[in-house]
Design a protein that fits this description.
The complex is a heterodimer of chains A (315) and B (249).
Chain A (H helix, E strand, L loop, with lengths): L5 E10 L2 E11 L4 E5 L6 H8 L7 E6 L2 E2 L4 H7 E4 L11 H11 L4 H14 L15 H13 L5 E5 L7 H16 L3 E6 L2 H7 L2 E6 L2 E6 L1 H6 L5 E5 L3 H10 L4 E3 L4 E5 L4 H13 L6 E5 L3 H9 L11
Parallel strand pairs in A: 3-8, 3-9, 6-7, 7-8
Antiparallel strand pairs in A: 1-2, 1-4, 4-5, 9-10, 11-13, 11-14, 12-13
Helix pairs in contact in A: 3-4, 3-5, 5-6
Chain B lengths: L1 H16 L2 H19 L11 H30 L2 H7 L4 H29 L8 H28 L3 H7 L1 H5 L15 H9 L2 H13 L6 H24 L7
The chains are: A alpha/beta (315), B mainly alpha (249).
Chain lengths: 315, 249
C-alpha cells in the first residue's frame, strides 16, 4: 500500500527553542490526494521541506515512495517532484528552456527531453508562451510552468506547497484541474493549503496542523461536521415574520436588529428542503436565504479553541 | 560533472538573455582606458607607448569587473526558489556554482577580446607570438577562474542580491591599486610595498610581458601562484558556505 505513498512517524523539528513540528504521525496511501491544512506559520512548509529532503528532521522519520528519508534520500529525490510556495522557475530562461533545463538535469536523451517539453507545454497551455521568459507571464502561467517543470521527471509523489496562494479564482480552478488529472494518473499528492475549500475540492484526506501538532485528521466532510460554523441565515423584511419563524425553529438564534435568523444546519439540499418545508407549513416566507459553510477560521476555532491568526505559542 | 555543464549552459543562456552582465564588465574598463590614454597619458613621460603600457592593466580591470558580476548571479541563485528545486532533484549546489564559475571564465575571455580589439583600433600593436598569446589566454582564464571562486564565496556570504554587488567590490577594485597605470618603481615606498606584492600586479606584468614581447621573468610564476591560491581559497570558502544547512525563511 505504501510503496508510492508517504508514512511519517514521530517527526520533530525545532529552530532554536521554537518548536515547529512537535511529533507528527501520518500516512498517505499511494495515489491519494492528501491536504495539510493550516494557517501561516503552522509548520506546513517545514513539513514539505523535510519530506522533500531539503532539511533533516530533529527526530522521527518518514518513508516517501517506499524509501527512507534518512537512508535513501537519493532514491526519494528520484521519485518526487516539488512545487514550492515560492516560484522555482528561472526568470532568464524561456518557458521551453526551463523545461529543457529540467530534462538535461534528469539526464533525459536530447530528443526525449524535447518531446517531453513540447508535451508539457501543450498540456499546460503554454505553447504560445514557450519562447518568452516567465517575466512576461501572469501569476497563473508562472505557476503552471512551475508545475510543468516538476512533472518533467514523471514523479510518483508530488509535493505542492500552497499551490494556489496568490492566484485569481480562474487560475486556481485550472491548477485544481491539473492536480486532479495527476491524481487520476496514479500520482500521490501531498498538498498544503490555507483554504478549507481547496482541501475540500481536492483531497480525499485532510489533516489540520496547528502549532506543530496535528489537531485533526479525516475526510473533509468529517472535519466539517465537527465544526459548528455551518448555518443558514434567513432574512426578513419585518419583525413579525421573524418572530413567527423563530417560534417555528427553536434551535435558531434571532437577530432582531438585522431582521435575520441564524439556523444551524450543514447546508445540504435535504437540510434546506426540510427547513423550507417547515417554514411553509407555518406560513412564513423569508425574504432572503444564505448558506454559510465553515471557513478555516471556524475549523480552527472549533478544533483548537483559538483563532487561526494567533501565532504565539500557547504554553 | 554533466550537471555542472548543464549549469554552464544555463549561465551562458543568462548572459545571452541579459547582456547587461557583459556590458557592465566592459563599460568601466573602457572608460578608464579612454581616460588614461587620452587624458592622464598626456601627463606621463611614457609618451606614445603609454597605450601599450596601460592595455594589460585595463584587461585585468576587465577581469575584476567581470568576476564581480558572479557574486550577484550566485546571490540571486541562492535567493530564488529554483535552488530548492535543484536540491530536491539531487543537483548539488556545487554544480550550480561550478556552472557560474566556468561561465564567468568564458564571459571574461570574451570581454578581454573585445577590449583588445578596441585597443588595436586605437593604434595598439601587440608583439606577442603564438606562445605569447597562449600565455595571455591562459593567465586571463586562470585569473578569471580564481576571481570567480572568490566572488562566488562572497555572493554566498551575503543574504541579499544588493549586498552581493558591494561584497565583491574588493575584487573589482583591487586591480586598480597595482602597476596597472603606472610603474610601481615611481610610487612612494608604502604604496609601492602594497602594489608590488598584491596578486594582480604579477598578473598584469605577465600580460604586459607576453603582449609587448618584453621579458616576463618571475612574474609568470607569481601570477600562477597567486591565481592558484585565490582559486583554492575561494573554492574552500565557497564550499564552507554552501555545505551549511540553509536557514529557514
Amino acid at each position: 500500500m505504501t510503496d508510492s505513498g508517504i508514512t511519517v512517524s514521530g517527526l520533530r523539528k525545532s529552530y532554536g527553542d521554537r518548536v515547529v513540528l512537535d511529533g507528527i504521525d501520518l500516512t498517505v496511501p499511494a495515489g491519494a490526494i492528501f491536504a495539510l491544512l493550516g494557517p501561516n506559520g503552522a509548520g506546513k512548509t517545514t513539513m514539505v521541506h523535510i519530506l522533500a529532503t531539503l532539511i533533516p528532521p530533529d527526530a522521527g522519520g518518514a518513508t516517501v515512495a517506499g524509501h527512507d528519508l534518512a537512508t535513501g534520500a537519493a532514491k526519494v529525490r528520484a521519485a518526487i517532484g516539488v512545487t514550492g510556495q515560492f516560484s522555482a522557475v528561472d526568470n532568464l530562461l524561456t518557458g521551453e528552456e526551463n523545461l529543457l533545463l529540467m530534462a538535461d538535469l534528469l539526464h533525459l536523451p536530447r530528443r526525449a527531453g524535447r518531446r517531453r517539453a513540447a508535451e508539457l507545454l501543450e498540456r499546460f497551455e503554454l505553447t504560445e508562451a514557450a519562447r518568452r521568459t516567465p517575466l512576461t507571464y501572469s501569476g497563473g502561467m508562472k505557476r503552471r510552468l512551475d508545475l510543468a517543470m516538476t512533472l518533467v521527471g514523471e514523479p510518483r509523489v508530488i509535493f505542492l506547497d500552497e499551490p494556489t496562494t496568490g492566484l485569481d479564482p480562474r487560475s486556481r480552478r485550472t491548477v485544481w484541474e491539473l492536480v486532479r488529472g495527476l491524481a487520476a494518473g496514479g500520482v500521490t499528492i501531498f498538498l498544503t493549503t490555507q483554504y478549507l475549500d481547496e482541501a475540500d475540492q481536492l483531497a480525499g484526506r485532510v489533516a489540520v496542523l496547528d502549532q506543530g501538532r496535528l489537531v485533526a485528521e479525516g475526510r473533509p466532510d468529517e472535519l466539517k461536521r465537527r465544526v459548528p460554523g455551518a448555518h443558514v441565515r434567513l432574512g426578513f423584511t419585518a419583525p413579525e415574520p421573524l418572530a413567527a419563524a423563530a417560534a417555528l425553529l427553536p434551535a435558531a438564534t434571532p437577530d432582531e436588529e438585522a431582521l435575520a435568523l441564524r439556523v444551524p444546519g450543514d447546508g445540504t439540499a435535504a437540510d434546506l428542503r426540510a427547513l423550507l418545508d417547515r417554514l411553509e407549513s407555518g406560513g412564513v416566507e423569508p425574504d432572503t436565504l444564505t448558506v454559510h459553510t465553515p471557513d478555516l477560521d471556524d475549523v480552527f476555532f472549533a478544533l483548537t479553541g483559538h483563532a487561526a491568526a494567533t501565532k504565539e505559542p500557547v504554553r | 560533472m554533466s550537471d555542472a555543464l548543464t549549469m554552464l549552459r544555463r549561465d551562458l543562456l543568462h548572459s545571452r538573455r541579459n547582456p547587461s552582465t557583459l556590458v557592465s564588465a566592459l563599460i568601466a574598463p573602457i572608460l578608464m582606458l579612454l581616460m588614461f590614454v587620452y587624458i592622464f597619458g598626456a601627463a606621463t613621460d611614457l609618451g606614445e607607448d603609454y597605450l601599450g603600457y596601460v592595455v594589460p592593466g585595463i584587461l585585468v580591470l576587465c577581469i575584476g569587473y567581470s568576476v564581480g558580476q558572479t557574486a550577484v548571479a550566485v546571490a540571486t541563485d541562492m535567493n530564488e526558489g529554483i535552488i530548492n528545486r535543484f536540491r530536491t532533484m539531487g543537483i548539488s549546489r556545487a554544480a550550480v556554482l561550478t556552472g557560474r564559475v566556468l561561465g564567468t571564465v568564458l564571459r571574461t575571455l570574451l570581454c578581454v577580446a573585445i577590449i583588445l580589439g578596441l585597443t588595436v583600433a586605437m593604434g595598439y600593436r601587440p608583439h606577442a607570438g603564438l606562445t605569447g598569446w597562449l600565455v595571455v589566454a591562459a593567465i586571463v582564464a586562470l585569473a578569471a577562474f580564481a576571481g570567480a571562486w572568490l566572488t562566488t564565496a562572497m555572493g554566498l556570504s551575503v543574504r541579499t542580491v544588493v549586498a552581493a554587488s558591494y561584497a565583491s567590490l574588493p575584487v573589482t577594485l583591487l586591480p586598480i591599486l597595482s602597476s596597472a597605470f603606472s610603474p610601481t618603481a615611481r610610487m612612494s615606498p608604502g604604496v609601492r610595498a602594497f602594489t608590488e606584492h598584491q596578486p594582480f600586479t604579477p598578473i598584469i606584468e605577465t600580460l604586459r610581458g607576453a603582449l609587448n614581447g618584453t621579458p616576463i621573468g618571475g612574474h609568470l610564476w607569481w601570477a600562477a601562484g597567486w591565481s592558484a591560491a585565490m582559486a583554492l581559497g575561494g573554492y574552500l570558502w565557497a564550499r564552507a558556505r554552501f555545505t551549511r544547512p540553509p536557514t529557514p525563511r
